[in-house]
Amino acid sequence: MGVELICLARRVTWVMLGVIGLLGSGYAGAHGTRAGDLLIDHPYATPSQPGASTGLVYFRSIGNRGQQSDRLLSGSTARAEQVVLQRRTGESATAPAQTLDAIDLPARSTVELRHTGAYQLVLSGLKQPLKDGDRFDLTLVFERAGRQTVKVWVQTPRSSPGSHAH
Hints:
Structural class: mainly beta
Largest sheet: 11 strands, mixed
Low-confidence stretches: 12-30, 160-166
């Protein structure tokens, strides 16, 4: 009887470790998406100003676990007429921005696209304001990973004064 209990305990332990491993690798459960070798982490938009015709989308990061580089080529959403890839040319959030044909995602690297960084996706021709708490779909097109739709959460970033978002 004691040997049977030990064997059962081992089996339960292995099953639990397998479940934990699946949950840990289930990246999409943590407000992120896997697209081939890419891990698209925490897509978010900042609330737009009343009457504004543009909005901004960011990501905590896009990680490329693959052996080959990839590139973010474009995006689209029902919330705006156009999605424009941009890189700010200066340090501040109000620095002028340059329109890009693509954002490079080198192999075995992570590119941050945060509101405090250089890259941003501009939603041009907003069809309605972006309000804290809203969620919407954004389809991204990658050179290698293809099309991937992510859920964008509208939130006030933590580093903004008076924010409560995560």
